[in-house]
C-alpha cells in the first residue's frame, strides 16, 4: 500500500474507532450492508505505514468500537436477567468487549508485521481479505467460538448471498472483504490493471448470483407441513419461578388451541418447560394424548435429566412419539449454561443468577428427529451460529428447526442479529427453517433465506405456516468449511512467501 501522511496521527485512531462503530450497522436490525465495506476500507486505510506495535493498538481501537456497538446487549442480559448489579454487569460487558477486540488487534499486528509494504497492489488486494477472514474463522471456534457479526452475514440481501450454498458464511465473508479491499485499492490508485480487476470481480459476482438463484440444490420432499409455533412471551424475570410453572404451561396450552385446530406439527420454544419433563407430566399429559389422537406431532423445549449419570440437558423432545425422540443441545454457552474452569469461577454464581447453569452437552453428531418420514435437523438457540455443526444432521434432514429463548436479550439488537444468522443457514443447506422463540422473533424462512412469515415481538402470539420439506445437498453441506479454509491457508502461505521474497529483494539480504 502507498504511504499516506501522518500514519501515527491520533486522528487515525479516531477514524479506526469510528470505523469499528460503523461495522455493526451492516447487520440486523439496521442492515445497512454498505457500512461493512466502508468500515473495512477505513480500518485498513488507517493501518498504512504503522509499526506492528502501533498497528496492534489501532486494531484494538477498531475492535473496541465494533464489539461495544455490536454486542452491547450483553449488558442487558447480565443486568436485567442475570440479576447482576449495574456495576458488575457493566464490568462484565466491558471485559467481554475488551477480550473480543483482541481479534481485530491480532489481525492488525499480523498485517503490519508480515505484509504491509511488502506486496504489490494486486497482491495486497488479495491479502487483506485472506487474513481478515482467517481471523474471523479463528474467532468462530477458538475457546468455544464467538462467530457473531461475522462479515458473511452482511451479504444477505446482496448479490453475494447465494454463494453461501457453495462455501458457507466464511466464503461470503471473503467475497465481501474482497470487494472492500478492491474499493480501497481503487480509491488509492487508479491503474488500468485494477480497473480490469474490478470489472472481472463484479462480473463474477453478478453472474454467479444469477446462476445460483436459478439453481435449486434441493427439491421438495413429501407433502407440505402445517406448522404451529407458540410464542408464550413469558418474562425472563419470572420464567424460572416455581410458582409460575403451571400458569406458564396453561398459557402455552391455551395459545396452542387458538384458531384452526388442523395442523401437523406444534412447536414450543426453548425451555418453554422451565423444568424437567417428568415434573410436568401431570400438566401436559392430557394435552399430549389429545394431540396424539389428532395425529399432531409436538416438539417441546424443556430440560431432560439422566437419572443414571445425573446430568441435565437443554433439550427438545418429540413428546407425542411412543418412544420419545430427544435432541440435546451440544454447543453450550459459557457462563450461561456452564461455568468454564468451574473450580475458579464458582464465585460468579453469587454475583450473577443464571438458572440451570450446570448443563451437560449432548452428542456432537445427533440424529435428526424423524416425523414419520420427514426428518428435522434441530438446533437450540446459539447453536445455529455454527454452520459447520448444523450440517452434521444433513443431508438426511429435510427441514431445519431452531428453538430459542431470546428473552435473555430483551429489546436489543440481539434477536434480529440472531434471526439473520438463521437466514444464512437456510441458504447454506437449501432447507427451509422454522424458528420458534419465547418472545420473538418467531419466523419461517424458505430455502433461499427469505422470511415468508413471522410473528411480532414481546407479545403472546401463535404463528401458523405451511412449510415444504426438501431433500438434496449443497456443496457446503457436503464439504463444510474445508474448501474455504484450505483456500485461505494456502493463500496465506503463498502471500507470506511473496512478501518475504519482496522484502529480501528490497533490503538486499
Please give a quick description of this structure.
This protein is an alpha/beta fold and 509 residues long. It has 16 helices and 14 strands. The chain has helices at residues 10-22, 34-46, 52-70, 74-81, 86-114, 121-139, 164-188, 192-214, 236-239, 245-256, 281-294, 342-345, 387-390, 414-429, 475-479, 482-507, and strands at residues 218-220, 225-231, 265-267, 297-306, 311-318, 326-328, 369-371, 374-380, 399-404, 433-437, 443-445, 451-454, 461-467, 470-472.
Write the layout of secondary structure elements.
Elements: H1 10-22, H2 34-46, H3 52-70, H4 74-81, H5 86-114, H6 121-139, H7 164-188, H8 192-214, E1 218-220, E2 225-231, H9 236-239, H10 245-256, E3 265-267, H11 281-294, E4 297-306, E5 311-318, E6 326-328, H12 342-345, E7 369-371, E8 374-380, H13 387-390, E9 399-404, H14 414-429, E10 433-437, E11 443-445, E12 451-454, E13 461-467, E14 470-472, H15 475-479, H16 482-507
Parallel strand pairs: 2-3, 3-4, 8-9, 9-10
Antiparallel strand pairs: 1-14, 2-13, 4-5, 5-6, 7-8, 10-11, 11-12
Helix pairs in contact: 1-2, 1-3, 2-7, 3-5, 4-5, 5-6, 6-7, 6-16, 7-8, 7-14
